[in-house]
Structures are given as structure tokens and as C-alpha cells.
User: What shape does this take?
Amino acid sequence: MPRLAIAPEVHRDLGALAPSARQEAVVALRRFLRGATSAPHPERVRNTRDTRVATLRLAERHRAVVVRQREVFWMLAVLPDAEAWSYAQRHRFAVNAAAGMAEIWDAAALEAVEPALRRAAESAGLRLFAHVCDTDLLGLGIDTWLLPLARLMTSEATLEALEPLIPESQYAPLSVLAQGGSLAEAWRALDGCAAVPASSVDVSDLAGALERTPGRAVFVADAEELDRLLDRPRWCGFPHATQYRIVYQDVHDGPVLVTGGAGTGKTVIAVHRAAHLATTGGGRVLLVTFSQATAGDVTAKLDVLVDDERVRARIEVGNVERLAHRIVAEAEGRPPLLVGGPDLATLWQEAAGLYGGPHSPAFLLREWEQVILAQNLCTLQEYLGAARPGRSVELDRRERTAVWQAIEHVTGRLRDSGRRTLLQLATQASTLLGRTTGDLLGDDAPGHEPYRHIVVDEAQDLHPAQWRLLRAAVPPGPDDLFIVGDPHQRVFDTRIALSTLGVKAETYRLTVSRRLSQETLTWAVRLRGGGPADGLVDGVTELAGYRADHGGMRPAVREYTSYDAELAGLVAQIRDWLAEGVPANTVAVAARSAGTVRDAKSALGGAGLKIRVTSLHGLKGLEFRRVALIGVAEGLVPAPGALTPAEEDPTARAHDLQRERGLLYMACTRATERLYVSYSGRASPFLPP
Ligand SMILES: Nc1ncnc2c1ncn2[C@@H]1O[C@H](COP(=O)(O)OP(=O)(O)OP(=O)(O)O)[C@@H](O)[C@H]1O
Assistant: This one.
């Protein structure tokens, strides 16, 4: 019986067909898998570069392009007839001789640029890879067909321009060598492209290579497997090489930390990993998300990925607050009371008046959260001897004593009224878990938290108190903590390296954004400042090497002469998008200030447009086809109320500014297709010129 190895583009192409044509094509594929007499049969195409290429007629004027090796058919695209024949003629297919993955490239396009490369090479004289011999290039898996072309390249810019035409497994090692990297570094880059390591490579065994390249092909043997693959989103069935390795291939002896820029697939990895652990590991899995909105998104993803109900039942989705709440409620026999923001603000006002001296309520609150709760300091003695990382205003012994008294005033008042803050709740829950760890680890104590595995999404914004809770909620060991996050998207003040909390993680870094177009990504990185960010990892995380896997539109930045005109511009923009046929639930509007959010809601509502309108924070972790950010003006972004006065604490102010910038950057990186940014008056100082 034939076996189909389906490429991700087939999933995309079938999804783009009219429903009747798609149905016809899927029925034809089912027949093909059954070997039915009425099934489409491979038809040779004239003038191909590879004799194994054929097409299968799947529907009226549409056919699939396949590469055949005995009973295995690698199906690459489903296109209108003429395009399918052209595709079949243009491409070459090979097995990487060094690493064994399947490769495909548009040979006709490369042949078309060859004369220009040759002319440039003749006039420049200097060659990009002159310092590397053929044997080494071939040893790195550079294809014999591509080698002469590589030899003509004169600059890194030429190589970069040809990147979309060259398989990643050819481009990655060449790029390292072009930047002056060593052969060993080039090898590592090639290894990074491999989902499954190959012990030996047979370049004639395409089917074997496809087994090692799960992101390029998924094998289906019958109609059921075919439907399962096609009916779910692409990220379910076609993990990219790095995703596959991290989730399914590598053995993790302890915590794992995956960092990566916006849209690099971290949530997808977290969801796959949770599903994999629930399938193969022991015990329950907690998948920690940031908010209710992200919990809903992640739950929906898990529901499509996992179809075995018993496996799905082993995974719980929730945030740290909910976990803390439950542990404390169970221990105390009733739900804990939380203090509201305004009441807490009043208490800090009181404390500042009584003991704060020159220090403002905001200063005292930050000292409590970032120094005392962060290090779980329980006595004045501990506080007097503690380091105060990230705090630039020195406090002598007398001042620390006064600050401690102010904090005791607030905590005492909270205790008297039986109320707590969320961070206090997390601290208390981890203390409770610490006391009873022995009981909690048995699976037969379902009242407690016997998690065997915890997967954390959006990890950059967790406070140390919350990390301590998560650490206490899972027994240390293989596959205990799997953490994904992006320090550049941090929207709260938690700049803590996991290692300082005793979490020594094996680290991975993702660099290719699957969401953003290169145009949006470049613009957003300029907005973010491109510089390093601290938190999660030791030292800093760089944005270097962060790139997109596709091109698109540049963000539209609109200046308006008045606020009313800006709101009218928003309404017009949303109308245009909807008129293009973009579904309303794939569009989001956001602003920094609550007032602007309210005004946008009423302007859109008044125009009869039902669109999600939220704060910038409300976009965290989410994705939309189109995003409009309004009110990105001086005086609104950064929000003045969120900034510490420079005279009070310059370091805190610098951190506040960076956090506000990170918030806008996060919001600007939510759109898959279009980003619209507007302001009236002067632009926010964060917007790139
Ligand atoms: N293997 C894959 N195949 C197809 N699409 C993928 C794959 N992996 C990720 N994607 C898509 O890339 C986009 C970004 O993925 P995801 O939301 O996981 O990124 P992220 O790193 O968590 O982003 P952020 O940190 O910005 O929230 C999503 O649209 C997702 O469906």
C-alpha cells in the first residue's frame, strides 16, 4: 500500500481551496491511500530536475506534486495544474549528506541568479568561502549542486539575500562560516537544524530522511490519520526541528528553560510538552499560564492537540494565583480573603505617614515586594543583612528599621483584618507545601498538589515568591519544570535569574518568529531598542539573530491632528479590515490608558463594530490577524503614573521605563498580518523615527 508523507504546505494549500474542491481532493487522497482502482495515479512531468517527481490529479484543475520512492510519496504542494507542473519542474530534492534530513529547494530560481552572482564574483575577486576547502563544505552537508553557487558568493549580504531559496540546513552552516565562525560552530548550526540525529546517512534513502524530518513531512497510512492531520492546525502536526527536539527527542534530567523572541513558538512548545509529559510521564501535569485570557487560549490549544481524554484529564491549566489560593483554602478550610488595590494603597499611605520619613508609599511597596518578599525575609535581622539588588537608594540601619516598621504596620493591619495580597498568598502556599511535601507527592492525595511535572508559559513575569511555590509543588527530578519565556516582553518588575532561586535549568533559545513578518519584527525590535534584557537566564538575553520566516507589510503608523480624528481613523481602519473579509474575532484594539480603551470601545460600539478592545496588558500571550494600537502618544506611553520620579529613585525609574517599553513591544508583536499604530499630538518617545 502507498504511504503518504505530507508536507506542511499541503495542509496550507488544501485549507486555501474552496470547500468543494478541498472535499474532492481529500476524498481522492483517501482513495489513494486505500489503493483503490479509481484513485489518482502518479503522472510524470516533462523536464523535471528529478525523475522521481510526479503529480496526482486530486480535484478539478488541481493536482498534488509528489516525490516518489517506492511506496512512499512525499507530497509537497496542492496547486492549480499549471502551477503544479511548474513547481515539479523547478525544484530539487535531496538528503543532507552530513545530517540526514530531507531538503528541497527552488533550483530554477537559483539558476536564474547564477549569472548575476558570477558577474559580481568576477568583478569583486574576493570570495566569501575562500577560506574553506570543498572537502570541508561537503563534509558539512553542502549539496554538490549548491557548492558551485556558494563558491560564487562574495559577501554575507549575498548569502542573506538568497536565504529564502536555500534549505535552512544548508544556510545555517554557511551563515556561520560567512561570519568567520569555525567548522565546529558550523557543525553545531547544522545539528541545530536536525530534529532527529542520524547515525549513518544514505543519501538515496529519501523515505528514511523524511522520518528524520518531522517538520517537513508527516507520514499517514490511512484515511483516519489523514483526517487527523488535516483537521487540526498546522502547529499540531508539523513541529519545527527545534520544537521536535526539545519536546520529544532530548532527555531532560531536570528543569528546562526555553527563551525566544515574540512569536517564536514558545507556547506551542509548552503545549506539546505538557501533552507529551501527560502521555509518557507519571502523574499530573500543571500548565501554568499568565492570565485567564491566556489560560483560555492554552486550554483551547490543548483540546485540539490531545484527543485521548485520559491524557487530557492529567493536564490542568491554571495560573499561580489559583494554585496558591487552593492550597491555602485547603489548609485553612475556607477561601482566603484578598485585599483590594484601593484598600492596600490606603494602608501604604498610612504606613508612609507613620514611618516612611522621606519615602513614598510606592517606594515602600516596591521595597516590600522586590526585596523582602522576593527574598522571603522574615525578620528585621534578616532584612538588615540582606542585599537589595536593583534598588539604587541606599538605606542605612536606621532607615531600614523604619521601613521594616512601615511594612509591619501594613502586614499587621492585613493580618488583623484577615486579608492578604497575592504575593503573600504565594509565600504562604509554598510554606505549606514545604511542610507537607512528603504527603503531597503521593498520587493518592488528590486534595493537595501532587504534580509530577510543571510547564510554565510567559515565565518572565513570575515573582520569586511564585517561583518558590512552583518549585515546592513538584518533586525535583527529571522533567520537573519546563519553562518558556521572553525577558524582552516582561511587563512587571521581576528581573530574577532562575539560578538564584535554585532552579538550574538546561537552556534553549529560539530565534525564528513564526508569527511576525520580517517588516513588523524589524520595526518592533527598533522600538524595543534591540538591547539585552535581564531576568530568567543568568546574565542577559540578546535579540541577536532574531528573525522572521516570512515577509509582509510594514506596520502602519498614523499621526492625527486631534484625539477625535484618531478615534475616527480607528473606526475607518477597522471597517476596512472587516470589509476585506477579516473575521471580527481575529482583530484586536488596545491602548495604554483606561480612558482611551473606554473611548475606543464607545467609538467602535457607536459605529456598530463589535471588536475586542483591551489594555496593552490584556494582549499578553495572545495572537490576532490584525492589531490596532491607539493613543501611542507622548504623555500616554509611557504612562506617567507608572513611572517613579527620577529624584526618588533613578534606577527604579529606568526600570519602569524599560518595563513600559517592553509592554509596548509585547503589544506590537501580537499581529500575524497587520499592525496599525496611531497617536494624536506628539508620538510616544518609544516609537522608532
Ligand atoms: N510548528 C509550527 N507550525 C506552524 N505554525 C507554528 C508552529 N510553531 C508555532 N507556530 C505558529 O507561530 C505562532 C507563534 O507561536 P506561539 O504563540 O507559540 O509563539 P510564542 O513564542 O509563545 O509567542 P509570544 O511570546 O509572542 O506570545 C503561532 O501562530 C503558532 O501557531
Summary: Residues 437-449 have pLDDT under 50 and may be disordered. The two ends are 60 Å apart (CA to CA). Residues 340-416 form one domain. Residues 234-235, 238-240, 243, 260, 262-268, 486, 489, 514-515, 621, 623, 669 surround adenosine-5'-triphosphate (CB under 6 Å).
